[in-house]
Design a protein that fits this description.
The protein has one domain (2-70). The chain is 21% helix and 46% strand. It has one helix at residues 28-42; strands spanning 2-9, 14-19, 46-52, 55-61, 66-70. InterPro entries: Spore_V_R (IPR007390), SpoVR-like_C (IPR057008).
Length: 71
């Protein structure tokens, strides 16, 4: 399940989605291909927080590229 965690993330109107991790990881390729499609709908950078290999990760798409940062 993916939920909207914050519609004003960083007090900048950015969208933060959160994957409610229940043992199954999201496919990184799909994350990196999907975020660019969400960006034009939101009109600002979009983020999704999930768990990859037992570590919290934040994926971000800023309108130009997708990045990931371990939390």
């Amino acid at each position: 399940m993916i939920v909207v965690e914050d519609g004003d993330y960083r007090n900048n109107g950015e969208l933060l989605l959160k994957h409610r991790f229940e043992g199954l990881e999201l496919d990184v390729k799909y994350i990196e291909k999907t975020l660019p499609h969400v960006y034009p709908l939101w009109g600002r950078p979009v983020h999704i927080e999930t768990v990859i290999k037992h570590r919290d990760v934040l994926f971000t798409y800023n309108g130009k590229k997708c990045t990931r940062r371990f939390l």
